[in-house]
Amino acid sequence: MNNLYLTDVAIDTWVQGGPAKMEDLLGSVVLIEVFQVNCPGCFLYALPNAIQLHEKYRDRGLVIIGLATAFEDYDKNTLENLQLLIKSGEVIGETFKALNQRGLLVDQSRLPWTFPFAVGMDRIAPDNEPVTEDRVLAYARQLLAQFDQFREDQQQTIKNQIRAFFEQKIMKAETFERFSLQGTPSAILFDRKGVLQDVSFGQAAHKQSAIEQLLVQT
């Protein structure tokens, strides 16, 4: 894990705020909150939690960056929709449906809160790599440390699912893939020296305690 650093985070476009370069954040504990615009769970749980963490720890040396990415729904998880979100608070797709059903939107389309920290877009590029057996197998072993111990039929089921994922994967998100993220929401946490300390997926109960531990370190 510690072979990755803050400088390995790839920002294609800053949509709100942001440092000139990631090295400018050295000296702070940095939390990269990774989300997709078309990700209901990101807006229901992870991003509101990130805002709470920002308000609680910013004066103690925590810097949070919201990083929008795209590993699916490429027509919705776009820079344009991220820019719309930051400019007007307007949400789209499944995010809109989920928040609207819960009565959590203002004027039936906008978030009732704004991002109090910098927000950028992951570096997205076409994925032209062929879907080979070696690529599928390598990805399976990357995701599942015990993959080779599964029964042959279980391995085949997993490989079929991965192959289907790769065949629809027309784009690649640099930060998402570099840090081997499993989905969104995810969080990437660095210490004051810019060294990777934790990667979590979903609602990570340990995130706050991990931040507190890093903040007291010099």
What would you say about this model in short?
The protein is 36% helix and 19% strand.
Task: Describe the overall structure.
There is one protein chain. With 218 residues, the chain is α/β, with parallel strands linked by helices. It has two domains: 6-125 and 173-215, Glutaredoxin, CATH 3.40.30.10; 128-168. The protein is 36% helix and 19% strand. It has seven helices and eight strands, in the order E-E-H-E-H-H-E-E-H-H-E-H-E-E-H. It has helices at 40-57, 79-88, 93-101, 133-143, 152-168, 174-178, 207-215; strands spanning 11-16, 29-35, 62-68, 118-122, 124-126, 171-173, 186-190, 196-201. A six-stranded mixed sheet has the order 1-4-3-2-7-8. A two-stranded antiparallel ribbon has the order 5-6. Helix 1 packs across helix 3 and helix 4 crosses helix 5. The longest helix has 18 residues, at 40-57. The chain is globular, with a radius of gyration of 18 Å. 28% of the residues are buried. The mean pLDDT is 92.
